[in-house]
Amino acid sequence: MILPQFDVLVPETVNEACAMLAEHAEHGVRVLAGGTDLLVNLRRPIITQHVPRCDGCRTHPEGAVSSTIDCTMWESEPLMASGGSLRTLLRDQEKTSPEFLVSLHKLKELKNIRRSDDGGLRIGALTTLAEIQRSPEIRQDYTALAEGTDNLGSPLVRNRGTLGGNIVNARPAADAAVPTIGLGAMLTLHGKSGTRSVPAEGFPTAPGKTIIEPDELLTEIVYPLSPTYSGSAYYKLANRKALEISTVGVAVWVILEKPGGPVADVRVALGAVGPTPILAKSVPAVLIGKVPDKAAIAEAAEAAAGDCRPIDDHRGSAWYRVQMVEVLTGRLLKIAVERAGTTT
Amino acid sequence: MSDYKLLNTRAPRVDAVDKATGRAVYTDDLKRSGMLYAALLHSPLAHARILNIDTSRAQKLPGVKAVVTHHEAGIEPYGVSPARYDETIFCHDRVRYVGDEIAAVAAVDLDTALQAVSLIKVDFEELPLVLDGLTAMDEGQPQLHEMYEKNICAEVNWHFGDIEQGRKEADLIRTDRLTSKMQDAAFLEPQSVLAEVDSHGNLTMWSSTQAPHYVQRTLAMALKIPLHKVRVIKPAVGGGFGPKASCSTGELATCLLAMKTGKPVKLTFDREQVFLHSRARHQFFHTMTTGIKKDGTLSFLEHQCILDGGAYASFGIATVYYAGSLLGGPYRLKNMKYDGRRVVTNKPACGAQRGHGAVIARALFEVQLDRLAEELGMDPIELRLRNVMEAGETTCNELFVSSFGMREALEAVRDSATWRQKRSQAGRIRRNGKGIGAACGFFVSGAGYPIYRSQTYHCTVITKVDDVGGGVTVMSGAADIGQGSDTVLAMITAEELGLSLDDVKITSGDTALSVDLGAYSSRTTLMTGHACREAAQDVKRQILAAVGGRLGVPPETLDLRDGLVVSLAGDIDFSALREEYLKEHKGFRDLPSGPQLTFREASRIAFLELGSIVGTGKYKPPKLGGSFKGATVGTSPAFGCSAQIAEVNIDLETGEVTVDRITGAHDCGFAINMTQVEGQMQGSMMMGMGEALMEQVQYDQKGRIVNANLAEYKIPTSLDMPHLEAIVVESNEPHGPYGAKEVGEGAIMPVIPSILNAIYDATGVRIEELPITPERIIAALHAAKNALLDSK
Ligand SMILES: Cc1cc2nc3c(=O)[nH]c(=O)nc-3n(C[C@H](O)[C@H](O)[C@H](O)COP(=O)(O)OP(=O)(O)OC[C@H]3O[C@@H](n4cnc5c(N)ncnc54)[C@H](O)[C@@H]3O)c2cc1C
């Protein structure tokens, strides 16, 4: 399929970008970062196109341009009603195509990795997944995020795709978004009337949908300080070793009071087992204050499995996914605890 | 070591540099002045009656040059097998799958063509769907075609030997099942067509096809023009694997539009259209009962198969026969019964794909052998060795194997993969996540008969010496689709004429050059190889006769080697010939000066004597096979065989499969080009691995493909590929040129079963449904655990 027609706007500053977004909100405007998600979606296939069945996606123009890559993650229904001409649907789709793309490529200030004042890490939204994968600092202190990028797409996709794009596209299986939630990051959203900071786990609301306002950009992803005895890990379960949408993705972050010692804090984030990446809410209650031994980890893993609500789709059944959440959470907790104990 | 200069070496492919640098020209690269762009209207519904087609708005769109439907195309049926012509160029009364073609548009650019297609209004009345191949034959199911009662498109009932006798003799009998999924061949280059009609009404079509000759016939028949007015040219092709062997609606519609508009018209499939057009591997439902004696001798095989073939017959008649016939080898099996039925369903039509019809049947049979070996407490390779056929034997379904390195191949993989150490105790399963499994395969080296009934030569080759002397041009209809047949033809010609590869020009894949049935059934090296050798020898004979005449020596005392004419009977005085050549080339540089007469001089002198020198070659297999119904399918002048060992590592908690290593050995008779033989083996291993572990075309309840793209249809990536070892076995096939026979398809046969058997060794569970996803492994492990608990 060929791309629909649109104009590309190139702002020089974040404020200018927000102004453009506000100005054209009526006519359909989209932010273009690496384009590895957006451009694929704009080139929808002719016949077997699907849109998610969730509310909003049907009516909301943004939702209607759902990913060919993983929109079927969530229960899907073809755009097309039975009977009638297929081609009228193409026209419907064209209506939902944006008239403008706001390309962020000149906003160099969004392309960096730096320490924040409290010792945490601030990653600009335009930082590529490859840059994250290569950063020794991230691999050391935010291992789950580095591992989230390791098997994401392919080298080509990682060279272009951005962290911001992975979070805003709001796919349930997004491999960098899941560890971002697991690591307790805050997202900085910049709009016409100012800046706000929101927790990553509350950001996506449905497949392809977030709380971002039409005039807002995601500018920065802020990860909290990684304490001395902390460790994290991510695992992407899929059917092949590259170019895959996860069947299940699990990120864990463990903070210990001392090596081998009781758990001070823990976060487990799950991908592809709900309409958005989710936080396994019951895990902390099970694990905090306990020595993370085999039994405690097994209990926490079971709790994580209880927290997810996957569906059956062509990548895997709900039955399998729930079990895998348990298996992987258990394994990753063990790895994260080991990493926490050896942090220098 | 052979005495050949080029054959049996690793000569670089003649198209290697062009392909690696992007210089190779594919159909979509072609442009003609005034060229129009075509787009197709596909059915959005899997089964519906067409009530009305309104093209008026599309016709009026500025830039649109033609809109065609069944009104323009007619409704005369065509197809692949003459007995099953069940397609029309465009649907007229009914659509039978999502993607069925209803209309086509030619316009000044692609945007306009697509927009015009969107303006065509079709009124449908939806019909109930048949999506499940297993129940398609049931009472009360809607019927897709009037000609296919109960949706059965083809049925085979074979009985060779005596099954009942086999049953009596067997000490152990077991029944197993295996189901697969429809496949996509996932070739790199989507189908592309460019068609043009000249002022004399000659239609030329460039197309990404595997079989220019068959496509030429279908075009002429369906478009109602004489055969000689149709020329099909195959530019560089990026893979075919079977689906490009039959004529597509895309090809027919584009030609029709070129005829209507008088302009060149191009159509290139989108990847989604590749999936919709399909013609790839069927879905198979196999059930096999095999009996064996205590000593490991096979006593019988009773085999049932249902093939889900999608909406039309395509190559499927051959498929249902192949699914049965190719189990005749590579083991001695006296008694075999086969009942196969191919049904039609409201899904894209299936056809031929690498290992045509035989891949899943082979997989189940090899699994059965493993299970029987386990029950007998016998090593599975030992059991196979006790049953392998030897050269000179004939199968129960009358397939004669004239060369057969099966034993050698099996022993080679056993030793190279150190099977004995890794699989320490016979029949003992490890169940610790690490596993090793073996399997064999058997395949034709060229179909014994063309797809239409005819006494035609299967190929002819014309080799013409440059009139100016120095080189030759080989003209052949053979289709190099990436498998390397051009290189094989160049190597054979260069070998016969003592030339370097650079002095042999190959022109091929053009119906104007010669007849060649095309790249399918692993036929080209054996068949076109024969014709090519004959043509080169014809040329050589003519040149040597002319030169011998001029020199006054018997031609038999002369030979062509290393670009020179050599005398086998001592020195000869050729100065007169050289003088004549030099006189013709005053002022030229780089003239022959050495102590021997060169090919350049000899071929020019021969031209001066004889005029243009043209050599011809041809090939047609002898009469093959038995006299029972369907005996022609599975016949071949020669048979390839192969053995493989797969080693896997399974995560017993997640079901993830890592294939660590595949060791394969294939008997190709004689490797014309070693590298190419290994390449075919490695490609087969990769394709088979994908089919075993991840590939499946998936449908929703309305018959729409949910993964019609290469992001969601999974094939192995480079990271998934294990270490591959390709061992070439050469058995010297008496019916093949220089002893050569197939490797293109046979090598895929053992891949799936060797992986299935390795997974069993690793896990202790058997998977009966492909692909073997992590989830299926976990489900099977759970079921096994529950069964164990129940039994306690
Ligand atoms: C072949 C292939 C394989 C892939 N594999 C994976 C995979 O394994 N795992 C995975 O998670 N993803 C995968 N993806 C999806 C995609 O590559 C990633 O999600 C990537 O991170 C998207 O980033 P981008 O910069 O390219 O986003 P874009 O495509 O530019 O944008 C994505 C969305 O986010 C919006 N957006 C982007 N940046 C901002 C911003 N700063 N502020 C506001 N809105 C913004 C855009 O408007 C758009 O809606 C794959 C994609 C392809 C094509």
Topology:
The complex is a heterodimer of chains A (344) and B (792).
Chain A: E1 7-9, H1 14-24, E2 29-32, H2 38-42, E3 50-52, H3 61-64, E4 76-78, H4 86-96, E5 100-103, E6 113-115, E7 121-124, H5 129-134, H6 136-141, H7 143-150, H8 155-160, H9 163-168, H10 177-182, E8 186-191, E9 194-199, E10 204-206, E11 209-210, E12 217-223, E13 230-237, E14 248-256, E15 263-271, E16 278-279, H11 283-287, H12 294-307, H13 318-342
Parallel strand pairs in A: 1-5, 2-5
Antiparallel strand pairs in A: 3-4, 6-7, 7-12, 8-9, 8-12, 10-11, 13-14, 14-15, 15-16
Chain B: H1 16-21, E1 36-42, E2 48-54, H2 56-60, E3 64-68, H3 70-73, E4 94-95, E5 101-107, H4 110-118, E6 121-126, E7 152-160, H5 163-169, E8 172-179, E9 192-197, E10 203-207, H6 212-223, E11 230-233, H7 249-261, E12 265-268, H8 271-277, E13 283-292, E14 298-308, H9 316-325, E15 336-343, H10 359-376, H11 380-387, H12 406-416, H13 419-422, E16 434-444, E17 459-465, E18 472-476, H14 485-497, E19 504-507, H15 524-551, E20 558-561, E21 564-567, H16 575-584, H17 599-610, E22 614-619, E23 639-650, E24 657-667, H18 674-693, E25 723-729, H19 751-763, H20 774-791
Parallel strand pairs in B: 1-12, 10-11, 14-15, 18-19, 24-25
Antiparallel strand pairs in B: 1-5, 2-4, 2-6, 3-5, 7-15, 8-13, 9-10, 9-12, 13-14, 16-23, 17-18, 17-22, 20-21, 23-24
Helix pairs in contact in B: 10-19, 14-15, 15-17, 16-17, 18-19
Bound molecules: flavin-adenine dinucleotide.
The site of flavin-adenine dinucleotide has 30 residues of chain A, from strand 2, helix 2, helix 8, helix 9 and strand 12.
Summarize the structure.
Chain A is α+β, with helices and mostly antiparallel strands. Chain A has 13 helices and 16 strands.
Notes on the protein architecture:
The complex is a heterodimer of chains A (344) and B (792). With 344 residues, chain A is α+β, with helices and mostly antiparallel strands. Chain A is built from 13 helices and 16 strands. In chain A, strand 10 (204-206) and strand 11 (209-210) form a beta hairpin. The longest helix of chain A is centred in the C-terminal third of the chain and has 25 residues, at 318-342. Chain A is globular, with a radius of gyration of 20 Å. Chain B is α+β, with helices and mostly antiparallel strands and 792 residues long. Chain B has three domains: 16-22 and 457-619, Aldehyde oxidase/xanthine dehydrogenase, molybdopterin binding domain (Aldehyde Oxidoreductase, domain 4), CATH 3.30.365.10; 31-127 and 188-239 and 243-277, Aldehyde Oxidoreductase, domain 3 (Alpha-Beta Complex), CATH 3.90.1170; 283-449 and 626-791, Aldehyde oxidase/xanthine dehydrogenase, molybdopterin binding domain (Aldehyde Oxidoreductase, domain 4). A seven-stranded mixed beta sheet of chain B has the order 3-5-1-12-9-10-11. Chain B has a five-stranded mixed beta sheet with strand order 7-15-14-13-8. In chain B, helix 14 (485-497) runs parallel beside helix 15 (524-551), helix 15 (524-551) packs across helix 17 and helix 16 (575-584) packs across helix 17. The longest helix of chain B is centred in the last third of the chain and has 28 residues, at 524-551. The model of chain B has no long low-confidence stretch (mean pLDDT 96). The interface between A and B is large, with 42 and 51 residues. Bound molecules: flavin-adenine dinucleotide. The site of flavin-adenine dinucleotide has 30 residues of chain A, from strand 2, helix 2, helix 8, helix 9 and strand 12.
